[in-house]
Amino acid sequence: MSTKITQQTEGSLSLREPKQYHVYLLNDDYTSMDFVIDILVRIFHKSYVEAELIMIQVHQNQRGLCGTYTYEIAETKVHQVSSLARENGFPLKAVMEEA
Ligand code: TYC
Question: pTM for the whole thing?
Answer without folding.
Answer: 0.86
